[in-house]
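#struct-help
A.M.: can someone run this one for me? Single chain, 263 residues.
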Amino acid sequence: MIYYLGPEGSYSHEAALLIDSEPVAVTSIKDVFQKSIAHRGIVPWENSLEGSVSETLDLLLETKLSVVGELTLDICHCLLGNKKAKIVYSHPQAIGQCREYLYKHNLEAIAVTSTAQGVVEAKKRDALAIGSQQAAKTYNLPIIDRCIQDRNDNSTRFAILGEVIPKATGIDKTSIIFATFNDKPGALYQILEIFAKEEINLTRIESRPTKRFLGEYLFHVDLEGHIKDSKIDSVLKEVAKRTSFLKILGSYPQWPKQCQNQS
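D.P.: on it. C-alpha coordinates below:
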Protein backbone atom coordinates (compact mmCIF):
# COMPACT_ATOMS: atom_id res chain seq x y z
CA MET A 1 0.00 0.00 0.00
CA ILE A 2 1.20 3.50 -0.84
CA TYR A 3 -0.42 6.86 -0.05
CA TYR A 4 -0.39 9.82 -2.43
CA LEU A 5 -1.69 13.37 -2.72
CA GLY A 6 -5.10 12.99 -4.33
CA PRO A 7 -7.68 13.01 -5.58
CA GLU A 8 -7.49 10.44 -8.34
CA GLY A 9 -5.99 11.82 -11.53
CA SER A 10 -3.24 13.91 -9.91
CA TYR A 11 0.37 13.58 -11.05
CA SER A 12 1.10 12.06 -7.66
CA HIS A 13 -1.50 9.42 -8.55
CA GLU A 14 0.30 8.68 -11.81
CA ALA A 15 3.59 8.35 -9.96
CA ALA A 16 2.07 6.12 -7.28
CA LEU A 17 0.64 3.80 -9.95
CA LEU A 18 4.20 3.09 -11.13
CA ILE A 19 4.83 1.55 -7.70
CA ASP A 20 1.49 0.08 -6.61
CA SER A 21 -1.58 -0.84 -8.65
CA GLU A 22 -3.96 0.26 -5.87
CA PRO A 23 -2.58 3.44 -4.26
CA VAL A 24 -4.63 5.30 -1.66
CA ALA A 25 -5.43 9.02 -1.99
CA VAL A 26 -5.28 11.52 0.88
CA THR A 27 -6.07 15.22 0.88
CA SER A 28 -2.70 16.82 1.69
CA ILE A 29 1.05 16.25 1.62
CA LYS A 30 1.03 16.32 5.42
CA ASP A 31 -1.51 13.49 5.43
CA VAL A 32 0.81 11.45 3.20
CA PHE A 33 3.57 11.82 5.77
CA GLN A 34 1.27 10.85 8.64
CA LYS A 35 -0.17 7.80 6.88
CA SER A 36 3.27 6.63 5.74
CA ILE A 37 4.29 5.84 9.32
CA ALA A 38 2.59 2.46 8.94
CA HIS A 39 2.94 2.09 5.16
CA ARG A 40 4.67 3.86 2.27
CA GLY A 41 3.93 7.25 0.78
CA ILE A 42 4.94 9.29 -2.24
CA VAL A 43 5.19 13.09 -2.31
CA PRO A 44 6.28 15.63 -4.93
CA TRP A 45 9.82 16.79 -4.09
CA GLU A 46 11.05 19.12 -6.82
CA ASN A 47 10.16 20.26 -10.32
CA SER A 48 12.59 21.11 -13.09
CA LEU A 49 10.84 24.45 -13.78
CA GLU A 50 9.54 25.66 -10.41
CA GLY A 51 12.06 24.09 -8.04
CA SER A 52 11.39 22.30 -4.77
CA VAL A 53 8.05 21.81 -3.07
CA SER A 54 8.42 23.84 0.11
CA GLU A 55 5.93 21.84 2.17
CA THR A 56 7.74 18.60 1.37
CA LEU A 57 11.10 20.09 2.40
CA ASP A 58 9.67 21.28 5.71
CA LEU A 59 8.01 17.95 6.48
CA LEU A 60 11.17 16.00 5.62
CA LEU A 61 12.91 17.99 8.33
CA GLU A 62 10.24 17.14 10.90
CA THR A 63 9.46 13.51 10.09
CA LYS A 64 10.95 10.34 11.55
CA LEU A 65 10.37 8.62 8.20
CA SER A 66 13.15 8.01 5.70
CA VAL A 67 13.37 8.67 2.00
CA VAL A 68 13.52 5.11 0.64
CA GLY A 69 13.22 5.85 -3.06
CA GLU A 70 12.86 8.46 -5.77
CA LEU A 71 10.82 8.60 -8.97
CA THR A 72 10.85 11.12 -11.81
CA LEU A 73 7.80 11.74 -13.95
CA ASP A 74 7.71 13.73 -17.18
CA ILE A 75 4.95 16.35 -16.99
CA CYS A 76 2.69 17.46 -19.85
CA HIS A 77 0.17 19.97 -18.54
CA CYS A 78 -3.15 20.24 -20.38
CA LEU A 79 -5.77 22.96 -20.24
CA LEU A 80 -9.09 21.30 -19.44
CA GLY A 81 -12.70 22.38 -19.13
CA ASN A 82 -14.88 25.15 -20.52
CA LYS A 83 -12.99 26.99 -23.28
CA LYS A 84 -15.08 30.13 -22.74
CA ALA A 85 -14.06 30.44 -19.09
CA LYS A 86 -11.26 32.69 -17.79
CA ILE A 87 -10.72 31.15 -14.33
CA VAL A 88 -8.18 28.33 -14.02
CA TYR A 89 -7.86 26.04 -10.99
CA SER A 90 -4.69 24.10 -10.23
CA HIS A 91 -1.85 23.44 -7.81
CA PRO A 92 0.57 26.39 -7.29
CA GLN A 93 3.44 24.44 -8.86
CA ALA A 94 1.42 23.74 -12.03
CA ILE A 95 0.32 27.37 -12.18
CA GLY A 96 3.94 28.50 -11.92
CA GLN A 97 5.03 26.07 -14.63
CA CYS A 98 2.43 27.52 -17.03
CA ARG A 99 2.85 31.19 -16.10
CA GLU A 100 3.62 32.44 -19.62
CA TYR A 101 0.69 30.58 -21.17
CA LEU A 102 -1.74 31.94 -18.60
CA TYR A 103 -0.48 35.50 -19.12
CA LYS A 104 -0.65 35.21 -22.92
CA HIS A 105 -4.28 34.01 -22.81
CA ASN A 106 -5.36 36.41 -20.06
CA LEU A 107 -6.39 33.61 -17.68
CA GLU A 108 -6.75 34.07 -13.91
CA ALA A 109 -5.31 31.26 -11.81
CA ILE A 110 -6.71 30.09 -8.47
CA ALA A 111 -4.55 27.75 -6.36
CA VAL A 112 -5.89 24.51 -4.86
CA THR A 113 -4.28 21.54 -3.10
CA SER A 114 -3.51 19.42 -6.19
CA THR A 115 -3.91 19.43 -9.97
CA ALA A 116 -6.65 16.80 -9.71
CA GLN A 117 -8.51 18.89 -7.13
CA GLY A 118 -8.31 21.72 -9.63
CA VAL A 119 -9.99 19.52 -12.22
CA VAL A 120 -12.75 18.69 -9.71
CA GLU A 121 -13.27 22.41 -9.03
CA ALA A 122 -13.30 23.26 -12.73
CA LYS A 123 -15.97 20.67 -13.42
CA LYS A 124 -18.05 21.86 -10.46
CA ARG A 125 -17.79 25.54 -11.45
CA ASP A 126 -17.81 25.13 -15.25
CA ALA A 127 -14.32 26.65 -15.34
CA LEU A 128 -10.82 25.65 -16.47
CA ALA A 129 -8.06 23.55 -14.92
CA ILE A 130 -4.44 22.67 -15.52
CA GLY A 131 -4.12 18.90 -15.30
CA SER A 132 -3.04 15.69 -16.96
CA GLN A 133 -4.57 13.78 -19.84
CA GLN A 134 -5.44 11.08 -17.32
CA ALA A 135 -7.34 13.61 -15.21
CA ALA A 136 -9.31 14.66 -18.30
CA LYS A 137 -10.36 11.04 -18.81
CA THR A 138 -11.08 10.45 -15.13
CA TYR A 139 -13.36 13.47 -14.77
CA ASN A 140 -14.67 13.57 -18.33
CA LEU A 141 -13.46 17.06 -19.18
CA PRO A 142 -12.45 18.12 -22.69
CA ILE A 143 -8.81 18.92 -23.41
CA ILE A 144 -8.55 22.42 -24.88
CA ASP A 145 -4.77 22.56 -25.24
CA ARG A 146 -1.85 20.18 -24.56
CA CYS A 147 1.61 20.66 -23.09
CA ILE A 148 1.03 24.27 -22.07
CA GLN A 149 4.00 24.45 -19.66
CA ASP A 150 6.59 27.16 -20.31
CA ARG A 151 9.25 24.59 -21.26
CA ASN A 152 8.84 21.15 -22.80
CA ASP A 153 11.53 19.54 -20.63
CA ASN A 154 9.30 19.60 -17.56
CA SER A 155 9.62 16.83 -14.97
CA THR A 156 8.78 16.31 -11.32
CA ARG A 157 10.81 14.26 -8.89
CA PHE A 158 8.95 12.41 -6.15
CA ALA A 159 10.21 11.11 -2.81
CA ILE A 160 9.09 7.67 -1.66
CA LEU A 161 8.67 7.56 2.11
CA GLY A 162 9.07 4.58 4.41
CA GLU A 163 10.63 3.30 7.61
CA VAL A 164 13.32 0.94 6.33
CA ILE A 165 16.23 2.23 4.23
CA PRO A 166 16.88 -0.18 1.33
CA LYS A 167 20.17 -2.01 0.90
CA ALA A 168 22.87 -0.54 -1.30
CA THR A 169 22.60 -1.32 -5.01
CA GLY A 170 25.83 0.32 -6.18
CA ILE A 171 23.88 3.08 -7.93
CA ASP A 172 22.41 5.00 -5.02
CA LYS A 173 21.76 8.47 -3.63
CA THR A 174 21.78 9.78 -0.09
CA SER A 175 19.82 12.85 1.00
CA ILE A 176 20.78 14.96 4.00
CA ILE A 177 19.91 18.25 5.69
CA PHE A 178 22.51 20.25 7.60
CA ALA A 179 23.09 23.64 9.18
CA THR A 180 26.41 25.44 9.53
CA PHE A 181 27.79 27.45 12.42
CA ASN A 182 26.59 30.94 11.52
CA ASP A 183 29.42 32.84 13.19
CA LYS A 184 32.16 31.06 11.27
CA PRO A 185 33.35 32.54 7.94
CA GLY A 186 33.51 30.04 5.05
CA ALA A 187 31.46 27.47 6.97
CA LEU A 188 29.52 26.22 3.94
CA TYR A 189 32.67 26.06 1.79
CA GLN A 190 34.39 23.92 4.42
CA ILE A 191 31.51 21.42 4.39
CA LEU A 192 31.42 21.19 0.60
CA GLU A 193 35.19 20.77 0.58
CA ILE A 194 34.82 17.52 2.54
CA PHE A 195 32.78 16.01 -0.30
CA ALA A 196 35.07 17.42 -2.98
CA LYS A 197 38.22 15.95 -1.43
CA GLU A 198 36.64 12.50 -1.46
CA GLU A 199 35.33 13.01 -5.02
CA ILE A 200 31.72 12.53 -3.95
CA ASN A 201 29.33 14.04 -6.47
CA LEU A 202 26.60 16.31 -5.12
CA THR A 203 23.55 16.11 -7.39
CA ARG A 204 21.57 18.81 -5.59
CA ILE A 205 22.17 21.54 -3.02
CA GLU A 206 19.52 23.97 -1.87
CA SER A 207 19.10 26.40 1.01
CA ARG A 208 15.92 26.70 3.04
CA PRO A 209 15.18 29.21 5.85
CA THR A 210 15.19 27.73 9.34
CA LYS A 211 12.15 29.92 10.16
CA ARG A 212 13.89 31.01 13.36
CA PHE A 213 16.00 34.01 12.37
CA LEU A 214 16.39 36.05 9.20
CA GLY A 215 19.50 34.92 7.34
CA GLU A 216 19.69 31.50 9.04
CA TYR A 217 19.47 28.56 6.64
CA LEU A 218 19.32 24.80 6.38
CA PHE A 219 20.98 23.09 3.41
CA HIS A 220 19.31 20.20 1.60
CA VAL A 221 21.86 18.08 -0.25
CA ASP A 222 21.70 14.94 -2.41
CA LEU A 223 24.89 13.01 -3.02
CA GLU A 224 25.85 9.90 -4.92
CA GLY A 225 26.42 6.83 -2.75
CA HIS A 226 24.81 4.92 0.12
CA ILE A 227 25.22 5.47 3.86
CA LYS A 228 26.43 1.88 4.15
CA ASP A 229 29.34 2.66 1.81
CA SER A 230 32.43 3.09 3.97
CA LYS A 231 33.48 6.30 2.19
CA ILE A 232 30.04 7.89 2.55
CA ASP A 233 29.83 6.84 6.19
CA SER A 234 33.24 8.37 6.92
CA VAL A 235 32.44 11.62 5.12
CA LEU A 236 29.11 12.07 6.89
CA LYS A 237 30.78 11.54 10.26
CA GLU A 238 33.20 14.32 9.37
CA VAL A 239 30.33 16.55 8.22
CA ALA A 240 28.57 15.95 11.55
CA LYS A 241 31.63 17.26 13.39
CA ARG A 242 31.66 20.51 11.40
CA THR A 243 27.95 21.33 11.39
CA SER A 244 25.53 22.52 14.04
CA PHE A 245 22.88 20.12 12.77
CA LEU A 246 22.86 17.07 10.48
CA LYS A 247 19.94 14.85 9.52
CA ILE A 248 20.29 11.89 7.16
CA LEU A 249 16.99 11.58 5.30
CA GLY A 250 17.85 8.24 3.72
CA SER A 251 19.66 6.31 1.03
CA TYR A 252 17.87 4.82 -1.97
CA PRO A 253 18.42 3.56 -5.54
CA GLN A 254 18.81 6.28 -8.16
CA TRP A 255 15.86 6.54 -10.54
CA PRO A 256 17.19 5.40 -13.94
CA LYS A 257 17.40 8.12 -16.58
CA GLN A 258 15.88 5.79 -19.18
CA CYS A 259 12.78 5.50 -16.97
CA GLN A 260 12.45 9.27 -16.97
CA ASN A 261 12.20 9.29 -20.72
CA GLN A 262 9.50 6.63 -20.69
CA SER A 263 7.31 8.21 -17.99
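A.M.: thanks! The CA atoms of residues 136 and 142 lie 6 Å apart.
D.P.: also worth noting: The chain has three domains: 2-74+154-165, 78-145, 172-258.
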